[in-house]
Every structure is written in C-alpha cells, then in structure tokens.
Q: What sequence folds into this?
C-alpha cells in the first residue's frame, strides 16, 4: 500500500484514471462531512442522540420497540439536512458519470446529497432519509423538504417507517447483488469517506480488488481497508477528488 498526502496524486493513479473505462466509487458519511453532515464514527467519536448511540437508535430492535423514537431521530436529522448543500466531492463525482464509459456510484449515505449534486443512478445501499415506507405493504412515499411528512400509508392505512436500512436489517432487494457485480467488473475502485466497518458494503472493495481492480482510498484516517488498497490518499474528499480531474 502506497500512502500519500493530498496534492501528491501518484503518476500510476493519474494514468489509470485517464485510461479506465469501468470505474466504481463507494462513498460513506465522510463524503458529506464538508457539507456539515455529522459522521457516525471517526475522530474517536460515535454519534449519540438523546443518550442513545446511533447503532442503538438506528436498529431493527429500536424500530420494533419504539417507532416514534426512531422517527424523532430521523426527523431531527432531516431538520439539519434541509439546509445543507453538496460539496466539491459530490460535484466532482457527478462529473465523473460523464467521464467514464461505465461509472457506478454506490453510497451508504441516506442524505440525498449525491443526487442534489447531479448524480443519476446512485445505488443507495442504505436507503434514503427522504422517503418513508409502509411497514405492511412496503409502498414508498417521498418526504418533502419543507412541510409535514406522511405518517399513515395512503394505500393500506398502516404505519410508515423511515425507508432506511437499520442495523440487523437486510439491504434493499438486489442492491448488494448489483453492487457486487459492478465491483467485480470495475478496473478502478475508489473508497471515499467510509470507516469500512459496516457489512455488507465493506465487502465491495474486497470484491473489486480480488477481481483485479486498482483500489484507492480517500480518507483523512486509516481504516481496516487501508492495507488492502494500492494507494491511500490521506485527506478530505472535497480537497482530493477535484485534484484528480485536473
Ligand atoms: C472523511 C472526511 C472527509 C471524515 N473526507 N473522509 C459481517 C461481519 C460483522 C458484522 C456483520 C457482518 N455482516 C453483517 C453484520 C452486521 C452489521 C454490521 O456490519 N455490523 C458491523 C458494524 C460490525 N450489518 C448489518 O446489520 C447490515 N445488515 C445485514 O447485514 O443484513 C443481514 C443480516 C441481518 C441480520 C443479522 C445479521 C445480518 C445493515 C447495516 C445497516 C447500517 N445502517 C447504518 C444506519 C443507516 C440509517 C441511519 O442513517 O441512521 O448506515 S449504520 C451507519 O454506518 C450508516 C452508514 O451508512 C454506515 C457506514 O458508516 P460510514 O459511512 O462508513 O460512516 P462512518 O461515520 O463510520 O465513517 C466516516 C468516515 O469518513 C471516517 O473513516 C472518517 O475518517 C471519514 N471522513 N471526514 C473523507 N472530509
């Protein structure tokens, strides 16, 4: 593994970036940090809401026992997100969809900022904070940026829940399979702003690497994935990703 600081993009990475046709990017909370979205982990901190660590309140168990508390947690976060904008990293990744013959953007984020920056066909592995889903019939509803969220299913009248993947829940049908397929095909794989602790998404760079891809991590901190990477660019996504375009 080659570890370099920002503004020293290695020649091999630059050359691969110029010639690759199949590129995959996996993003995590760190890509939105420069927009003001709090990360879950990192800097030796863990997100806590009303005394509950996020992995307690964002869990299938919490949903089962106290749906109202889970909604309060997500309502609180939408209240913050409503005022936040994409940053240079989101806009750079949106440009990359035009640059490569096949470009896959996989995100673990639920904040919708990639789409706000102009990315299409984002594979949202953990759902979206801007949707609700019926706990009985599964119909999904958009939650408006302004105004009230729906709390009852218009189709069957049952309760709604956030359309996100909580700890102990399965990913959306087909999302991991599609992501794993794309990971196995890509030549160049970027892992940006994720602690690479949560499975199954953390397995995707391993699949890419095992299939022959060149693996590049962008993160100010080391992660369990760093040693597997061909190159680690140590720094902020909003500083580093635009440099690759230059
Ligand atoms: C910057 C930066 C800047 C800062 N620029 N970078 C295999 C082994 C062990 C456990 C499991 C396993 N398989 C499954 C499990 C269980 C579990 C799991 O993975 N647990 C581990 C934590 C141990 N997984 C699941 O439960 C998953 N479901 C599943 O596997 O189903 C099958 C199953 C069912 C039942 C039982 C067992 C299996 C579902 C996981 C869903 C996770 N959902 C969450 C919450 C979503 C809702 C919400 O938003 O509240 O998703 S958890 C949270 O972590 C969120 C994130 O998407 C996810 C990943 O976090 P991420 O994005 O990496 O953020 P951080 O904060 O961790 O890291 C930020 C990084 O950014 C840091 O590295 C910083 O340095 C960096 N950074 N500024 C670039 N400017």
A:
């Amino acid at each position: 593994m080659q570890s370099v600081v920002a503004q020293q993009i290695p020649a091999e990475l630059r050359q691969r970036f110029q010639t690759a046709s199949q590129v995959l990017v996996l993003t995590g909370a760190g890509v939105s940090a420069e927009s003001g979205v709090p990360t879950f982990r990192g800097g030796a901190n863990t997100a806590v809401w009303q005394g509950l660590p996020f992995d307690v309140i964002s869990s299938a168990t919490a949903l089962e026992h106290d749906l109202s508390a889970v909604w309060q947690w997500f309502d609180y976060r939408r209240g913050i997100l409503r005022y936040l904008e994409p940053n240079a990293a989101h806009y750079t990744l949106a440009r990359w969809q035009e640059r490569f013959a096949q470009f896959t953007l996989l995100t673990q984020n639920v904040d919708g900022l990639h789409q706000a920056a102009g990315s299409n066909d984002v594979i949202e592995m953990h759902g979206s904070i801007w949707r609700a889903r019926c706990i009985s019939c599964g119909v999904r509803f958009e939650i408006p940026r302004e105004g009230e969220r729906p709390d009852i299913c218009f189709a069957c009248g049952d309760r709604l829940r956030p359309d996100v993947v909580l700890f102990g829940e399965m990913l959306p049908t087909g999302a991991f399979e599609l992501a794993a397929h794309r990971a196995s095909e890509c030549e160049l794989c970027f892992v940006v702003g994720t602690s690479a602790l949560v499975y199954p998404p953390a397995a995707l760079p391993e699949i890419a690497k095992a299939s022959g891809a060149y693996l590049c991590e962008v993160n100010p901190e080391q992660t369990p994935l760093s040693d597997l990477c061909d190159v680690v660019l140590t720094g902020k996504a909003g500083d580093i990703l635009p440099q690759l375009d230059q």
